[in-house]
Amino acid sequence: MDSALKKEINNLQGFLDASTSPFHAINNVKELLVGHGFSEVSGHDNWDSRTNRNFLIKDGSIVAWVEADNLPFANGFRILGAHTDSPNLRLKPLQLLSSSTFGQLSVETYGSPLLNSWLDRDLGISGRVIVEGDPFAQVLFSSNEAICRIPQLAIHLDRDVNEKGLKLNAETHLAPIWTDLPADSLAFNEWLADQMSISSRKILSWDLMLHDAQESTILGANEEWLVSGRIDNLVSCYAAITALSDFDVSNSETIPLVCLFDHEEVGSVSSVGASGNFLSTVINRIMSGCSLESRAVAFEKSFCASVDGAHATHPNYPERHDLNHIVKLNEGIVIKRNANQRYATDGIGEAFSKKICVNSEIPFQIFANRSDLSCGSTIGPTTAASLGVRTIDIGVPQLSMHSAREICGVEDQQHLRTFCQSFFSS
Ligand code: ZN
To answer: pLDDT of 2-21, one tens digit each?
Structure first.
């Protein structure tokens, strides 16, 4: 790995390790944007006197964009979209669970995690805690250390697990142990309050989740792979936001915009999800001085790229793939096609994506699923439907998608960053 790539991957690893929940991801994106001269606007205020580089945060989602004094809105937008959430295990609101031998945490699944990947890992807790304020305030929380673990049943008590497969019940088999003290209804609140150096009476509620406490690492005989939690989809968030923060808009003909949404892994239907009106409201507010006619023209001239993880061809399960559409790590970005609109790319979108790749010397691969397997999806079809903007689905290949620890190629991060930058000026 050359030194420039190593530096870029180190920065990405810092972002991945520090973004243990969507709220932390948004906070880290905010710091990056502020460091590049962006200002936060409030949804409550009038935006007439805004600067040219702005962002709006709504819980675990953000929209950031760059305007220029002589850049007409009617030329449209170049929109890069990704998601901040990852499948995981989340803490239920009441923590009263115990056995005769352990104090345990009560959890539920979020999205579609590979449950087995959460076993026998050292797990931390992170998210946001809602505390007393005026009327309340939200505080980011992350346990600095791993504090809990979901122990797998020993082979001696489950003799045929390797032959018959591991079956996990989400209610009964996933409760982590976190203390051997006798359980008590206030124990978790008091531990949390102690960690936050506040009184437990101040804690009103939380959105807390588990994360693998092991940091990301580089793997492979030639340092070719990045291994981390939340690769799906924080690598796309990072590529999009760094491309935006470095983009020189002075020669641009369109407005570059990045939207990072929470709740993609559970279907995007929420007030901050891609199915809601968060993005369209921001765009309409940006163009508030324009006529309905020029707004319609702007949407018609816009293009959206939904950036999300893609499946690399698994070496141990080639029969799960369409082998005419092989995808390899470190062989370039993936253009995703699906006739049933699980991915938004159509023929024109594929041609548009290929042009960007060829012009910027980015290697690319085309993905299509096996016809007899159902396909995953992204925010692409959702934003395409809600905005009426032509959309493409692209991303970097990975293995172990939805595992607590996923793997992707280091060189593909540079390919994705270059694609994002070129997309803004396409
Ligand atoms: Zn994803």
So the answer is: 999 999 999 999 999 999 99
- Give 259 Cα–ligand 1 centroid separation in angstroms: 14
Nearest to 216 by CA among 397, 84, 18: 18
CA 35 to ligand 1 center in whole angstroms: 27
Question: pLDDT tens across 210-258, in order?
Answer: 999 999 999 999 999 999 999 999 999 999 999 999 999 988 999 999 9
Distance 67 CA to ligand 1 centre (A): 28
Provide the pLDDT for residue 183.
60
Ligand 1 midpoint to CA 3 (Å): 29
Residues that place a CB less than 5 A from ion ligand 1 = 232-233, 308-309
Calculate how far, in angstroms, residue 341's C-alpha sits from the geometric centre of ligand 1: 16
pLDDT tens digits, one per residue of 137-172: 999 999 989 999 999 999 999 999 999 999 999 999
Give the Cα-Cα-Cα angle 421, 407, 108 (nearest 5 degrees).
105
Within 13 Å and on the Cβ side, how many CA atoms surround 50? 24
CA 379 to ligand 1 centroid distance, Å: 8
Q: pLDDT-derived band of residue 380, with 50, 70 and 90 as boundaries?
A: confident
